[in-house]
């Protein structure tokens, strides 16, 4: 059983910056049935331009015949603040003006996204999450939420993510925002503003998501006499146009800034000390040729989260491998969860 729902938060939501949002709405989807003990919750945090339908964008890992299936688990995925798939975002109506926010939308952080997951968990009466999982920006949210410590998280799975967004990652995001800002329509306060800039931004992003090898595998020409109209050129254009049909430049702008804000050490003693606050059984998965979130970032997480396990995936696709290599992820995660279950049984037997 699947449900698409919206939670209207009845209070004013205070952002980490101190700014406030009225009439916060959180769009989310659930799959399966919550059991009597409320201990079969799988909570997935989505990445930059995804949505709450995790069975659609993480096929092979989530689905009726997959590791995380709604027949066994109660799966929750919430659309994040700023995204245009139902949760409050820059195209939502500003209650002060009666018009869409556009660039008057307050900036928010990954920590705000984690706080909103907590709001939804409280609303649903969920006090424990069996497995919290996220990749990329989704992993940043999952990590922050686990550090927040207000919900009991048994298993934490962090894929292709980091403890603080790197100067390299911020530079990629800023280049994309510079591309959006070259489109004058972005400042015209209209729903389709900045789409030409967004198309260019997506093209830049793809170069960080994929690899030299991936483009050679999928976009290499079969003939030697071409001088124009290359497959790689068409691919970049197609992917940019594809995003423009389902997303908006304002959400992209704000979400990229949220990713830049990610640093678990902010307001805490240090990044290392913040990671010590994670209490969940943790698995960190890295992709060996990920140029956006290099594997050293996942190794760092595993080194500083108590008793964390680390696994790596060989994949020609780079960062996008966390969405593509679901068979490999299934094997790694399935083994980890089995070990975690056995440890829990031994611990309970010891207590008894």
UniProtKB/TrEMBL annotation:
Annotated localization: Cytoplasm
Enzyme Commission designation: 2.3.1.31
Pfam families documented for this protein: Abhydrolase_1 (PF00561)
Keyword set, alphabetical order: Acyltransferase, Amino-acid biosynthesis, Cytoplasm, Methionine biosynthesis, Transferase
Domain AB hydrolase-1: 45-321
Listed GO CC annotations: cytoplasm
Annotated catalytic residues: 136 (nucleophile), 290, 319
Associated pathway: Amino-acid biosynthesis; L-methionine biosynthesis via de novo pathway; O-acetyl-L-homoserine from L-homoserine: step 1/1
Functional summary from the UniProt entry: Transfers an acetyl group from acetyl-CoA to L-homoserine, forming acetyl-L-homoserine.
Entry similarity comment: Belongs to the AB hydrolase superfamily. MetX family.
Protein name: Homoserine O-acetyltransferase
Organism this protein belongs to: Pedobacter chitinilyticus
Taxonomic lineage from the root: Bacteria, Pseudomonadati, Bacteroidota, Sphingobacteriia, Sphingobacteriales
